[in-house]
Amino acid sequence: MVKLTIDLIARGTSGYTKKKRDETMPQYLRRLTHLYLEDKNIDEVGEDLALCRNLIVLYLYDNSLAKIPLLHHNCNLTHLYLQNNGISKIENLSSLTRLTKLYLGGNKITVLEGLEKQEHLQELHFENQHLPPGEKLLFDPRSLRKLAKSLQVLNVSGNNLDSFTDLECLKNLNQLMATDNNLNDMKELAHILGQWTCMCRLELMGNPICHKAKYRDRVIIMSQKLAVLDGKEITETSRQFLRNWHASKETQKKRHDEFIRQGMPTEISELSGSKSFPQMKVKPRPLAEVPGYLMPGLPRKQFDELLAKNRLDDNDLKTFQRANKTRSGVLRTKLPDIQTVRFLSSGMPAHSGLKTI
Predict the structure, then answer these.
(1) Which pTM was predicted?
(2) pLDDT digits (tens, 9 = 90+) for 308-321
(3) Which is it for the CA torsion 115, 117, 119, 120, positive or negative?
(4) In what order do the strands lie in the sheet with 175-177?
């Protein structure tokens, strides 16, 4: 185990803040703004860190800290990285009133609390706490109410959450990472997204809710400004298309309900979902009667005798042509076919249904 010392602090600075030749160690430590003390196996911070009065960013992740160190002398801190330690409770942060980013993921914290003094906190990363089996992360309402105005980014992935209800007051959230939880209520999500009017990035992969029918389409319709869902960008074209589709479905549903209210048949009013209009059964119209006289059929023998009797020779055809010529010698009509001439020559009555030429 390692205790934080002045020598370790001096080696945890960047190359841009080297100690000057004529500078004392306390003067040098007071000038530091960033400390990189990650992955040093540190389990105790001690009092030496209090000399870094102007510290703004402190990296203490991937160490062996059992609790948050006392940092009341480092009140200028804005970024604090404490993920992947053994911390079991949020404490000793009341003096850090300028914090804007706090990283506490990968610890053993069971209750999100102790943040009542963090009025300027914008990002809170609280993912993958090592919780007792069967338990979920709990939220202190007092801390959440205090964070409601400032918090914009929240990461609570991997904490066995099954509800968003406790987070409803965080109305200024624009990014929420809640992957690998037990969220499954689409109606609750719709209500919460109606409250989070600034939400532009939402990560929900690994939750049962992602297996709901048309999950992505429904979430896009629920939110007003959502630009990224589960790592995939949402274009304005797709958003507008889904909104128009949803509006059309709502109109059909209202029309369906109106039909039902008026007592109309359900076959006509069934307009919602993927069901289409039922096909109407049309009663076939009777065939129109054919005007004119239809000659009755004749036995085969009588029909052959009639044809033989009325067969014309070449002289009969020439006679018919001469009768239809004008004085100028031009035929007034086209020549009839031979069968028509035969019937006309036989003296058939005009009402027989055959048109004269």
Answers:
(1) 0.69
(2) 666 655 555 556 55
(3) negative
(4) 34-36, 57-59, 79-81, 101-103, 123-125, 153-155, 175-177, 201-203, 228-229, 232-233
